[in-house]
Amino acid sequence: MRIGVYGGSFNPPHTGHMLAAAELIAALQLDRLLVVPAANPPHKTLPPGSPGPEQRLALCEAAFAGLLHVEVCDLEIRRAGKSYTVDTLTALTSEHPEDDFFLIMGTDMFLTFASWREPERIASMAALAVMHRDTSDETWTRVQAEAECLRRTVGARVIAVENRCVQISSTTVRRLLAFGAPDCLDPGVEERILANGWYLTDGSLRGLPYESLRDICLSLHDEKRRPHVEGTADTAAQLAMRWGADPETARRAGILHDITKAIGPKEQLHICEKYAMMLSRTQRENPKLLHAKTGAVIARFVFGESEDLVNAIWWHTTGRADMSVLEKILYIADYMEPNRRFPGVEALREAVWRNLDEAIYLGLMQSVEHLRELGRTIDPDSLNAWNYYREITERSQ
């Protein structure tokens, strides 16, 4: 028999996993595909709100129940300690010594295969079936080079499997669940998650004290954006003390302002649809800029924040004419927090302590000129804000 071994945390299993399973069975002509949820993944820490191993096993059973030739295997759930692939394959090949095994992995995991525990033994027990989506990109070139290296060094059999499945990760699915906008889940899986309040769906995000809010927000961001978010929160609090706003509200606005930044344009539009948001033509044509609008909606409905804070997040990318003090503070804190590096930022940092409106004008002027240089569409709200604060600045000089 030809047996595929499809491992992972499946946290949670989603339609991308299910479609990949169907394609793998067809492409590799598998008699069985074993879906093997990891109890304790050695390469990652499961994020806050994740269900336990037995619960993830049950989610996999619900997700893959309708697929022929697919079996959910509890081998790693039953075994104590870290879930190492070499141990799993040793157990499976011992039970089925006459069968031909294929270890399923994505390109990212394949490129780290040489650093796994006992890669030589793994390669001796199973062919490495690498799922990929695009043979024209740089990643595929790296995969080909690594495949040749592994053939020489550990005698690996490497098989490329074209994967045209849903391009969404479990990380993105978890974020959408926390945002109250689940997507790409089997109905049975979604029902179980919501019934148990997994993945921050239990309504516990409203009215959090700041330290808890900070930890949750940072967990929903990509790691590289976290310094910017914290820098914006700290800068906003400092500016609030200078210009008479509430520092705690400003700090909360700063830590929340990019809360939906880590999800892509398709998912931004999904949130807009979920919360029945009316979008302008400019916004629909530039979904990458929607994070301010979706972030404001999530701040209101998921985190239960005040209207002033929500409005500050709504306008923090475009600005608007006649902004409130909190709106000005968040706009400029996002622009000039300590991690920002661009020509003119020092002038902003100097101006903001002297005259807040002048700093807003400088920020808007730099933003508008930069977009014009790139030939990009300028949001009408930004143009209105620029003209408004230009007049104020010119009158004060």
Give an overview in words.
This protein has 2 domains: 2-171, 3-Layer(aba) Sandwich (Rossmann fold), CATH 3.40.50; 205-396, Hypothetical protein af1432 (Orthogonal Bundle). The chain has 20 helices and 6 strands. The protein has helices spanning 15-28, 53-63, 75-78, 85-95, 107-111, 119-125, 138-154, 170-178, 187-196, 210-219, 226-243, 247-256, 265-274, 281-285, 291-301, 307-314, 325-336, 345-354, 356-374, 380-396; strands spanning 2-8, 32-37, 70-72, 100-106, 127-132, 158-162. A 6-stranded parallel beta sheet has the order 3-2-1-4-5-6, with helices on both faces. The longest helix is centred in the C-terminal third of the chain and has 19 residues, at 356-374. The protein starts with a strand and ends with a helix.
CATH architecture annotation of the largest domain: Orthogonal Bundle
Largest sheet: 6 strands, parallel
| Head-to-tail CA distance between termini | 82 Å
Sheet-strand content, in percent, reads 5-15%
What fold name goes in the CATH topology slot of the largest domain? Hypothetical protein af1432
State the domain count.
2
Structural class: alpha/beta
CATH C-level name of the largest domain: Mainly Alpha
Number of helices: 20
Question: How would you summarize what this structure contains?
Answer:
Helix content is 55%, strand content 9%. The chain contains 20 helices and 6 strands. A 6-stranded parallel sheet has the order 3-2-1-4-5-6, with helices on both faces.
